What we know:
Helices cover 19% and strands 29% of the residues. It has one helix and eleven strands.
Amino acid sequence: MISDQLLLVLKLCLLALLYLFFFRVVRAVWTEVHPPQPVPTGAPGSTPVAPRRRRTDGRSGPRTRELVVVEPVEVAGKSFPLIGEMSIGRAAGCQITLDDTYASQIHARVFARDNQWQIEDLGSTNGTWLNRHKVAGAMVMKPGDVVQIGNTVMELR
């Protein structure tokens, strides 16, 4: 027979799991109803865009593109050179790792196709934004474009 103490512990564990599940559902619904607001470019308080520099290494051709963090201020200026296909998210396996609670584990991917950089959302909860437009499918990025994932804002340079 199962003792009364063991039954009590099992009931409490089941109740805790039920509350955790309920909390996760409410959090997912809340972020769907209240997504993070896209940051308009050139808004007061936003980080100014640095002027583009010409290549000084004597080589011809376009410079290597990079995503540079604009916000949050704590990590502004951090850059991620774009090489091949790169995943963006909170997971340690992502090539671009974000410390952002509104970013999914594997949130989006950036890749080159037809000599253009493109971004694609990978079914994230909060979505990926390119120039204040929600990313649907693969979308082409141009230098100066602003990508927002959760509260992290990056610019393609």
